[in-house]
Amino acid sequence: MKKYKTLTAVSAPLPMTNIDTDKIIPKQYLKTIKRTGLGKGLFSELRYNDDGSDNPDFTLNKPAYKNAEILVTGDNFGCGSSREHAPWALLDYGIQVVISTSFADIFHANCFKNGLLPIALPKADVDKLMKNSERGANATITVDLEKQEILSTDGETIPFNVDPFLKRCLLEGLDDIGLTLGKTAAINDFEESTGEVRPWI
Amino acid sequence: MTAPKTLYDKIWNDHLVHQADDGTCLVYIDRHLIHEVTSPQAFEGLRIAKRKVHAPSRTLAVVDHNVPTTDRSKGIDDEESRIQVEALAKNCADFGVEYFNELDPRQGIVHVIGPEQGFTLPGTTIMCGDSHTSTHGAFGALAMGIGTSEVEHILATQTLIQKKANNLRVVVDGKTPDGVGAKDIILAIIGEIGAGGGTNHVIEYCGNAIEALSMEGRMTVCNMSIEGGARAGLIAPDETTYAYMEGRPRAPKGAEWDLARRYWESLPSDGGAEFDREVYINGANLPPIVTWGTSPEDVASVTSVIPNPDDIDDESRRATKKLALEYMGLTAGTRITDINVDRVFIGSCTNGRIEDLRAAASIVVGKTVNGNVNALVVPGSGLVKAQAESEGLDKIFIDAGFEWREPGCSMCLAMNPDKLEPGERCASTSNRNFEGRQGFKGRTHLVSPIMAAAAAIAGRFVDVRELD
Questions:
Q1: Which tens digits make up the pLDDT trace of B294-314?
Q2: ipTM field
Q3: Chain B residue numbers touching A30 (CB-CB < 8 A)
Q4: A62, B215, B221, B466: which one has the fewest Cβ atoms less than 10 Å from its Cβ?
Q5: Identity of the residue in A16, A31, A200 whose CB atom sits nearest the CB atom of B316
């Protein structure tokens, strides 16, 4: 996984609640056996008209947000299916940070495995950043993971929380399977001891 | 004396391999289920890093999401689906994982076959790259949906890196009225807590209405925990659980069964165990429920009307619900029983088990599907299908005008050819009414199997309590 660096970018507003992973990446794109190339399917049912042309009303299709790398959205983003294709599609499209009041648990975990940063903030802060994003292409914001701060266009600092282990994984681009394989002896011990106590498993 | 613990606390503690100072834990995974859609990239990752599967016998693979539900003895027409199915077969062969292919009589939806085979056991940790893995919590197993990177992590290490979630207790007391069952209970709970209400919680379902449910009913409840935002739902094991499990192919036998039972009996939450949150539902007051929107939290009693989004204070929530009504082609104030349906789907990991099919058949027997409705029954597994056929349920459905299909996920997520056409409205026993879930621009109303069966006959939603 590539290391996460401080990002200064345009943020696009998507003021809807309960955006599910079917909406982020519909099932017809799940037949792939690869992790790449899913950006074309991102939000496809919102993003394209029935004839396949771009829907000009969808936030990411508006000229102001063509280069957006940050998404500001409503409660419970990423709910529903466990498909990791959702963060793969967001990243492949070019979104690197999603800001909301809350994220679904599986989506949240999937983001960190791929270098996408989900930031949960109090509603007042999300509302503020939503308004900020509505100002368009010149209203860039900065997301500094090291300092755990968002800098708004007008220079206001908004702090955010992030799990320290997940933060380290993102900043250092860690391979967590490699980390766990470093604990193989403990895993083998666990298997041996539980095998005696619960042999039916 | 140790502090009283919840069922979740006990399973968690018994699976801790390592705990770091910051609370990050390495949790052992006893059972791993995989299917064709979320596993290919995980195996690809293993190959790239030259890693092997740590404990192949702890993983069971089955094909379910992509397979057609029509005759598949001649193979799969859709090329991408076929490639994905073939990839699973090859990955299982290469890495030594047991695999039920599309022609195996035991094949079926991953969350139907786990319990059926006795692979799902109380007190175990069970993971699968599918959010409805919460189903297995019905046995008192800690069961969660995971992403593909986590599938790869389990294959390579048989563990997951996790932090402990909070405990949420949902108590459902009272005898549910006739015509009201497990599906209505869980939809009512989701309506109460909201689609994100269970986020970062593991739900334990308690109360005499839960205890009265069969294993099939308990699986329906736990299955939809994720629709309330909870990655896992649990029900304490009891005599109903043991009676369901005993004699299943992979359940312990003889002296091991006795030993296991003693352990299982120690699992229920201790008296006085603390929950971070509690929710109470009076089961005696529950009506049959129909969803009206595009989130499983959009629930209404069959006797009520479509609610008015203008009554919602929060701006983005109000806007979202207005869009939902527009998508669904409905207007506020419409009676639920005035909504006509074009399609009916009975099946899925929520309601594709034998008891669900028996219940639906009891409504259908001797009647005919409405002329405007296309209705489909998709058994959850090959064994469910065989059982139903031995009881003559297939004949009841076929005589009434239903299609009777081969097992799979089918029109729950419409990855195979079973899907709604744009604008079609479906009464579905599945778990998600998201936009496009059952087909591009398709409109889904979630209901119980008997409500779906009754809608197929009437051509619109009806209150099953008022049927003769």
A1: 999 999 999 999 999 999 999
A2: 0.97
A3: 37, 65, 415
A4: B466
A5: A16
